[in-house]
Amino acid sequence: MNIPVSKPRGRPPKLQAGGDAPAADDRYRAPALDKGLDILELLATQAHGLTRAEIVKEMDRSPNEIYRMLERLVARQYVMRNAGGDRYALSLKLFAMAHMHPPLNRLVNQALPVMDEFTRRAEQSCHMGVYDRGNVLIAAQINSPRGWSFAVQRGARVGLLDTASGHVLLAYADPAGLERMLAEHQPIEGEVPIARSELDKAIARIRTQGLVQRDSAQTFGVVDISVPVLGPDNTALATLTCPYMRRIDRHLGPDLASVQDYLRQAAQALSFQAA
User: Fold this and answer.
1) Same domain, yes or no, for 134 and 241?
2) What is the DSSP letter of 271?
3) I need a labelling partner for 18 at 20 to 30 A (CA). Which of 88, 128, 171, 244 fits?
4) Which helix (H) or strand (E) segment is 229 a member of?
């Protein structure tokens, strides 16, 4: 059953009274910019827009400063005013800007140096998976600089229900998204089936622990570690996964616990950080 998620009203809770984001260093405050962003974030929560009086009330600011900022946002086409002139709503300009460059390419470009740093510290390979049409697409992959590692090729599609990456994507989806992903899923060659009850238990464990660490369901001797890259709504944009292989010769590389910690740090570096 899908659980409806209500949209918050008013100013986003991460902003303090007065419109200033609680930055660690106030030397870089930009009150006018914060004010404009406050308005955009407020209107983003309102499906039918707000009147100027409603915006003033929600923002707890003077009518004059709200009026000036609204007029500039309208002039720059970030906000549109209805025909009656008494209600304001977001335009599609921000949406269009967000799609000027392929989002996946931007994510990969940001992830590659972080993944490269992880492989150097962990001496293991790493790949990034994203949800794609019912399964998991490997969008980026970097080999271990040591030359000894297990790797999943970029562009490969792996199972949603029998991989660590797939379970993390499911665990960090909203309720409606989870059901949609399961409905779209089509088993791929070699996929290991799982009962819904067992999948639900696995998802619950991941939500509690924040990651997956388990023996690979595809390759003997590999321990999969997978963590989410989180977006602003706390759902998974992607996963970072390390197929950990333990060396048994005289080389002493990072142990499993250290690699897990390095992978967490990498995912946190790529995840959305609320101001």
Assistant:
1) yes
2) S
3) 88
4) strand 223-230
